[in-house]
Amino acid sequence: MAAVLPADRNTAAPDGQARAAVPTGRRILVVDDNVDAARLLADALEMVGHETRVAFDGPGALDATETFHPDAALLDLGIKTLNAFLAPVQAGEKPLNV
What we know:
The structure is a single chain. The chain is an alpha/beta fold and about 100 residues long. The protein has three helices and three strands; from the N terminus they run βαβαβα. It has a three-stranded parallel beta sheet with strand order 2-1-3, with helices on both faces. It starts with about 25 loop residues before the first strand and ends in a 6-residue tail after the last helix. Mean pLDDT is about 75; it is low at about 1-10.
């Protein structure tokens, strides 16, 4: 298995066609109680131009939404200290400037 990361977003695709613009610069919150997995994902996202923050539990994730103001969050659905299905509701209970 090989992963290919775009070296230059302005180069042509292998078939000679122009590449579609890839949005970059998003603020992404990564939440996972597996520290290594969270850091690996955050590092990969930063390699392609995103700004990231990592939280390892529910309270940390909710606190990060207040200070980091992410555009998106990638949540571990099985995290024990936060129900990922209810996280948007819980975050909405606090005044956020997202």
